[in-house]
Amino acid sequence: MNHDAEAFTGTFRDSPIGMAILDASGRLVDANPALTTLMGRTSALLAGAGIAGAVHPDDRDQFRQVVAHVARGTSERVQIQVRGLHASGDVLWTKTTLSRMPGAAGHVVAYVEDLTEVRRARELVEHHSNYDLLTGLANRTLLIDRLTVALQRSAASTACVFLDLDHFKVVNDSLGHEAGDLLLVEIARRIQATVRPGDIVARLGGDEFVVILEDMDEEGATGTMNALLAALREPVLIATHEVVPTVSAGVAVGTPRTTAETLVRDADIAMSRAKAAGRDRVEVFSEEFRDDAIVRLSIESELRVALREGQLEVHYQPVVDMGTRAAVAYEALVRWRHPQRGLLLPDAFIEVGEEANLIIPLGEFVLDEACRFIASRPSFTGKVLVNVSTRQIGLPDLTGVVSRAIARHAIAPDRLALEITESGMLVATQAALADLQGLADLGVDLLLDDFGTGYSALSSVLRSPVTGLKLAREFTLRLGDRSTGDRISTAVASLADSLGMHGIIEGVETEAQYRQALAQGWKLAQGFLFGHPTPAEQIPGAVGAPASADAAVTPRTTPRFPSPPVGPRSPIDVAADVPLLPSRL
Ligand code: C2E
Ligand code: MG
Ligand code: MG
Fold this sequence. Notes:
The chain is of the alpha/beta class. It has 20 helices and 22 strands.
């Protein structure tokens, strides 16, 4: 044996890479230990089975041809991807290099590198870049790919549905992220069980899902979604809690001009409409929605500028003592002096501010102004009521923001009252309730705003540190109807009294309403009859401000917003969790 042949035999035996010697027809002459291990077969078995047993049927012809070429000397060295067959039947992905065997004419050496693991890793990476890990659904990348293809095929019969879970944050915050994840997985399962087997369901992250429905028109998609909404309302048991999930859905159907991205965005816009219309429903996209969305977007960016450049201001509306009609408190109401559109009321921008998280700086601004108002009017000894958005409650720092504002202006904490809407109280999580307690501990009053429009259980009101109620204006409008309006007004006035809370009736506009409210037991009121929201400069009592015309009729010392009577919070049985008022009357 010459030196080369000896060296080859050594390499053949010890090589960690699989090696085989083949004859010109591709028949196996010998296999090294690395190859027999790789294929799970003995050398004899490999030789016996020949190429048929070792190479994947689809790759056999190509393999034979290449071996023949190399054996003949047409090609010196060829590298090919060949799928081998393991003894178990598993496919082995290999990179095989074929070259002529030194010193043995007509024979070929194959170096077989196993790429199976590499390939699996690559597939895994590809899977991860196309699928959502939590639910196994398609992710945004795959969704856009598939939607693009569907739109090219037939835009007019491609419907895209955007789904967003209602109040998911409440589940996440109160039951924990693991419970939130379980809920998402269950929702994913229900969506897939409702749509047709081939429909693409994707999760975009968070609680947002998108479904592509091909060969479907608007009506079909809306029908499918209504079925889905019904399926989703089945209670889910999560961590011993029964959760009734609901989703809001938006449907958009393609046009010849829509791209995948715009279609998803249109469906998203329609979904926001469904949320705004009360959640747990389907809305179909229309062009005017998009215009509204663009307006909202411009409000958002303009509101950022407004906050930075001081275009916001706070107006104050008196809360009066029903007996004397004197102002005993003021409600701080934010206004936006828009450079082009004039004075804007909160309805035009609060909601956008909440969604864009601008409510936090806005809220801080109003609080600061309210404290300044108090500090600059030593003769006014009543409270200032500041509206707090649900989004501000439960932020770890609300108590900090309030106490810093109080300290900055050196005012007593009991001069400040915060108004929280009744519906805000309802969605308040455990963390938020702790936050409210922190504020109450500071000595700040908490009032339930727009009382009667939500769905308050009496026991939940009593469990919270709330010290007052404001009856929503819609009930004031119904005063004198000798029916529900009068009954609710009377009941809430006496409820506030018996709970030892401040009761304020809102939206009193006429003398007739005033007389009725007085007769029904209201002690505090607010409304255009007593005063409109007014800029701070026009409210007398500010130190250093020019005396205003009506300063003379304003008592020098304002009566104090009465503290609620002391004593037991409630003589009422608090165990019953009965809704105090129906949501709609
Ligand atoms: P709200 O807290 O219930 O405030 C009372 C609203 O009713 C005010 O509207 C006030 O101008 C209006 N109002 C008062 N008396 C009468 C009346 O006799 N008749 C009629 N028709 N309306 C009356 P405004 O200022 O437009 O505020 C609307 C809502 O915006 C407020 O309702 C409050 O929820 C919110 N808001 C106002 N300022 C702020 C703020 O600084 N922060 C937050 N988060 N929300 C605010
Ligand atoms: Mg209010
Ligand atoms: Mg109100």
